[in-house]
Amino acid sequence: MLVADGTSQLVNNRANHAAIVSTDIIDAAEIMEAVTTLEAADALPFPNGKYVGIIHSYTKFDMMKDPTMQNMFIYAPSAEKNGLWTYKLGECLGIDWYVSSLANRTADGSDSINVYDTLILGRDAYGAGGLAAQMPKVPPSSQSDPNTGKRVMPVSIINKPLGSGGTEDALDQRGSLGWKTTYVVVVLDATRYVRLQHACSLG
After folding, report:
1. CA distances from 23 to 9, 61, 119 (A)
2. Would residue 193 count as lying in a domain?
3. Full-model pTM
4. Average pLDDT over residues 81-97
5. Cross-strand pairs, 35
6. Is residue 41 part of a domain?
7. Is 154 helix (H, G, I), strand (E, B) or coil?
8. CB–CB of 99/57 below 8 Å?
9. Is the pLDDT of residue 139 over 50?
């Protein structure tokens, strides 16, 4: 869902995925451009004052090799905060970084190379309702009725105790317990996150 929307930024100003070549890898300048795009769109950072970046493990490798970022890590005030010492990106360039091997990639670059999506998110870029978040309680009679305004976790527990099976459970030996929920994720404002598309030297 997130990789189909957002403000698109292709490394080295490539026209599309098919134009991305193996040397079009991410660097500090591209990341700073993405942050500038968010700031120019008045996309707020999260409450800790930072944006959130989601990258693939191969993207992290290329970021660690970038000379500009290496200098930032080398001159960190202590070894514990030195990314080259710990091999942790942590917070860098105004972004809290999270690494996932499941970050999106598609084999539609030049010569069918993989093109990776690095997501840099601002506050309220997307919303989640259901199992991962609370949502307003809706009267059970109809989804179109007004919300009650009360916030609840939207999980329903269904308990059918022993003896509720009728003729199918004549000896009253079976009961059941189940649950159901809803889950939805939607883009709230596509201008509040950047989808940075690039190649990776290892993938």
Report:
1. 16, 14, 20
2. yes
3. 0.76
4. 82
5. none
6. yes
7. coil
8. yes
9. no
What single-letter DSSP state applies at residue 31?
H
Q: If you ran DSSP here, which 8-state letter would residue 23 be given? A: T
What one-letter code names the amino acid at 168?
A: E
Per-residue pLDDT tens digits for 14-64: 999 999 999 999 999 999 999 999 999 999 999 999 999 999 999 999 999
Task: Kindly write down the DSSP assignment for every residue of 72-134, as one continuous string.
Answer: HHHTSSSGGG-HHHHT---EETTEEEEE-TTS-EES-SGGG--EEEEEEE-TTSEEEEETTB-
Domain containing residue 71:
2-125+189-198
Q: Residue 36: enclosing H or E segment and its boundaries?
A: helix 28-40
What does DSSP assign to residue 102?
Answer: T
Q: Look at 39-48, 77-86, 112-121 and tell me which has the smallest mean pLDDT.
A: 77-86
- pLDDT for 120 equals 97
- Strand pairing class (95-99; 105-106): unpaired
Is the residue at 203 inside a domain?
no
* CB neighbours of residue 42 within 10 Å: 9
Q: Is 69 helix (H, G, I), strand (E, B) or coil?
A: helix
Q: Which amino acid does the sequence have at 171?
A: L
Query: Per-residue confidence at 88, pLDDT binned at 50, 70, 90?
Result: confident
97 contacts 59 by C-beta, under 8 angstroms: no
CB 95 within 8 Å of CB 52: yes
